[in-house]
Structures are given as C-alpha cells and as structure tokens.
C-alpha cells in the first residue's frame, strides 16, 4: 500500500481524490494549505504528492520548490493540479520538477492512470 498526500485547499477535491485513492488500495493523507502540506510531507514521507497550484498561505509553486530542496522529498513524484490550464503554467510546473500536470476539473480516469504510472512498482 502506497501513501499519497493530497495538498489542496478545496475540501471537496480532497475528499473526492481521497475516495479514489483509498478505493485503489492506497492510504490518502490530506493537507489544506502549503505549509501544512510540507509538514505532512516531512512527517509521512509519502510515495506520491498531489499538489494544487493556487492556494492561500503558500501556493503550489513555492511548495514544489521546497519539496525539491528537501532531501526526503527531492525525488518524490508530484502531480500538479490547477483550474488554470495554461501552457505557460504547466511548463513552469514541469521546470520546477513536477512529474505530471492535470487540469481541473479532474478527469478521474486520467488521474487514476497518472497515479498508477507514478507510483513505485
């Protein structure tokens, strides 16, 4: 069983993704802002992180930069989520080190396939 951390300020998105993650046999953790997400990433050492880009307190770009600087999460796969599906934002997230980018509203089939692809075998 893999541990997947969802960092998103939208409680409905967290709940929905958690259901699908748990249904897939994995453990889902939730953080509702970037600071909380970084703390949970350090404490739980997740196998995968789902990261919203636009959040209060600390946005996803800052969180991703911090994750990539921490030894513990430097190589942890990250899926970036955003309602703003611009190619510039997507390119920026890839340049910061995300492994996949999914636009909101989330297509569950795409999400599940991406999760499956990025989880360690």
Automatic annotation (TrEMBL):
4-aspartylphosphate is carried by which residues?
52
Query: Where on the tree of life does the source sit, at the highest rank?
Result: Bacteria
Alphabetical list of SUPFAM superfamilies matching this protein = CheY-like (SSF52172)
Instruction: Using the record's annotation, list all stretches that form the Response regulatory domain.
Output: 3-119
Q: Does the keyword Phosphoprotein apply?
A: yes
* Pfam families (alphabetical): Response_reg
Q: Which UniProt keywords apply?
A: Phosphoprotein
GO biological process terms, semicolon-separated? phosphorelay signal transduction system
This chain's protein is named Response regulatory domain-containing protein
């Amino acid at each position: 069983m893999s541990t997947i951390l969802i960092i998103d300020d939208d409680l409905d998105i967290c709940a929905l993704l958690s259901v699908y993650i748990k249904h897939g046999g994995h453990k889902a953790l939730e953080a509702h802002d970037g600071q909380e997400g970084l703390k949970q990433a350090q404490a739980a050492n997740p196998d995968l992180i789902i990261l919203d880009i636009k959040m209060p307190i600390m946005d996803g770009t800052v969180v991703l930069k911090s994750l990539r600087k921490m030894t513990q999460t430097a190589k942890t796969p990250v899926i970036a989520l955003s309602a703003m599906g611009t190619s510039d934002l997507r390119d920026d997230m890839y340049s910061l080190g995300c492994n996949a980018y999914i636009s909101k509203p989330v297509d569950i089939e795409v999400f599940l396939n991406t999760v499956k692809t990025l989880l360690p075998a």
